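Note to self: keep these together.
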Amino acid sequence: MKTAEKACRILFVLLAVTGALLLFLPYRGIRVEAVLSGSMEPDLKTGGVIFTDVSRRDPEPGDIITYRIGDTDVTHRVVRKEKENYITKGDANDKEDMIPVKRSQITGTVIGTIPALGYLAVFLRQKTIFTILAIMMIQETIFGLIRWKGERREKLRRKLI
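Structure:
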């Protein structure tokens, strides 16, 4: 097998694994989102991916949470708790957020991050791109199975000769 062909196969496997993570983690209670701003640098790099556990909605100071303001998701660190509200701040911001966060706004606590994968995740979430890649993955799997079956048949034929 040629080096370029091996590299393409490895790339397809990586894309398949990434796609599977993006599709199946939400069913396990983990939201996968891309970091779109630099307010949490250096911990959460712009273009990275964050994994948010939606079952963890009662954070402690120091935890990074994702919360909803209108139609927008914001991911910032909890600085302190005041009565029923949480005071948050982006690590790269000079000041705390002006509006306290209510517990009902919290969608979850960030449990992990992968730098730079967000650009790929945003790209893969486009329905057209995802559909094309899914068809390519299915095609590659079928061709791989046909090749594997042919190699097995050839081995058996050689043994019989």
